[in-house]
Design goal:
456 residues, Heat Shock Protein 90, 2 domains, two-stranded antiparallel ribbon
Length: 456
């Protein structure tokens, strides 16, 4: 019984932290079931697999040292595949994000493995050829490794990864993700190879400097990938903000040119009307005025609201929408001073308008977009509705008044769409919210966004 409990505890201590960590970086909305239920299920599955592992070893009469290694590795591989299958099914996220998190946790597993074997190799000159893998010494070493490394892993890697997962579009970082996966595989394979080949003859410790160097190198790779992702996001926001400023400048210059041209045309019209009046040509004057009124073209730049940023964004995106033959109505009532960063307004309106255009492209001739923006009790409220024939829904999400979170809507683009999630993240930055609704009867999609306008 002692041997059974010892091996079950060893397997659980080594396996369970890794099984738990692959779920931690994702928000509760990403789970197919309640987060608490998922964690309870993972814990129960780990306990059952640990007991089954120990039972297999105890029922088999294993006397030779290599045989328990083969059985242990085979059982551990099967357990990893099972938990990986559950992970892919239970978490509704981009496959690329899930793969990246898995390999980061695999790095932790390899680091723990190296640490335990390193300590053992340094203090024990000959390998332990006991018929069972989790001797008292290894059990204590794995428990100590988890106590030291697990809190460090959660604070330094998992928490920053949670923020990274919610913001970054993995499609923009395919090469970096490939580097993470390949480097982790090399590191893991080298650790297993050195222990398997050289552990039995007691020279594993001679390869410890190389493994430690690889571990530090892998940590550097993680840091560089995270930093690069944040830099790219910041640069993209800066580029969009610059585009809006440039757009506003061009519109100001265009308005000035339009005003100059209108004054020039008006001078000619006044002179012509004055000549007709002097000659008593009243009927000709009426006909001329009617012609001028009918041929007057609406100004290129409409003024939607007093806020320059919102007005500039609306001018740009409404112009783009109408250029594609899509009917667009705008009602915007917001003050000139809004305590929302221009870059964040660009993310919100840009993603919402682009999603609306993409949906309208599939609606044939019945294409429309309605935009309503206003301030309500210290909040900026934005509602954008558009024609939409169909949308991919995840039925496991609950709705509130017909509205659902961004995760309930699945993109038909390869790799998934992230516009709605980007809108949600930006809204949460201002203690606000973003909800979305698809009305199959009316063939309409609505985005409703609220942002609290804080006073600094």
């Amino acid at each position: 019984m002692i041997v059974f409990l010892q091996n079950a505890a060893g397997f659980f201590i080594q396996f369970f932290p890794c099984a738990l960590m692959i779920f931690l970086p994702f928000p509760k909305e990403a789970y197919r079931f309640r987060r608490r239920s998922v964690f309870i299920g993972i814990t129960a599955a780990s306990v059952i697999m640990s007991a089954a592992f120990s039972a297999v070893l105890c029922l088999r009469d294993i006397e030779a040292y290599p045989r328990h290694v083969i059985i242990s590795n085979s059982f551990m591989t099967a357990a990893i595949l099972l938990i990986l299958a559950a992970y892919v099914w239970l978490v509704r996220e981009s496959l690329m994000k899930k793969v990246m998190v898995f390999f980061i946790v695999l790095f932790y597993a390899a680091t723990e493995f190296v640490a335990v074997n390193a300590v053992y190799a340094l203090f024990y000159t000959s390998p332990d050829t006991t018929a069972y893998p989790y001797t008292e010494t290894f059990l204590l070493l794995y428990a100590a490794a988890d106590a030291l490394l697990l809190p460090l892993m959660i604070m330094v890697v998992i928490r920053p990864l949670r923020e990274y997962i919610s913001q970054i579009e993995p499609q923009s970082m395919k090469r970096e993700f490939v580097v993470v996966i390949l480097s982790t595989l090399v590191y893991f394979a080298m650790a297993v190879y050195f222990d398997t080949v050289f552990g039995e003859i007691g020279i594993f410790r001679f390869y410890l400097p190389l493994l430690l160097f690889m571990m530090l190198d892998q940590m550097l790779i993680f840091w560089l990938v995270f930093r690069e992702s944040v830099r790219r996001k910041h640069d993209a926001e800066q580029r969009r903000a610059m585009e809006i400023r440039q757009l506003q400048y061009e519109m100001i210059v265009g308005d000035m040119e339009n005003t100059r041209r209108m004054r020039h045309d008006l001078r000619h019209h006044y002179n012509a009307l004055n000549d007709m009046l002097d000659q008593g040509q009243l009927e000709e004057m009426k006909a001329y005025l009617s012609k001028v009124i009918n041929t007057t073209v609406k100004r290129d730049s409409e003024i939607y609201c007093e806020n320059m940023t919102v007005n500039g964004l609306l001018q740009y995106y409404v112009g783009m929408i109408r250029d594609q033959g899509i009917a667009c109505e705008v009602h915007a009532e917001c003050g000139s001073l809004i305590s929302i960063e221009p870059a964040d307004l660009t993310v919100l309106l840009g993603n919402a308008m682009e999603n609306a255009v993409n949906a309208c492209k599939k609606c044939g001739d019945d294409r429309w977009v309605n935009v309503n923006i206003g301030t309500v009790q210290g909040s900026l409220a934005i509602e954008i509705s558009n024609s939409c024939k169909e949308i991919h829904l995840n039925r496991h999400y609950q709705t509130e008044d017909g509205f659902s979170p961004a995760e309930a809507f699945l993109s038909d683009r390869e790799g998934g769409g992230y516009g709605l999630r980007s809108i949600t993240h930006t809204a949460q930055k201002y203690d606000g919210s973003a909800k979305f609704r698809f009305d199959a009867e009316k063939e309409a999609f609505t985005a409703r966004i609220r942002l609290n306008m804080h006073t600094n």
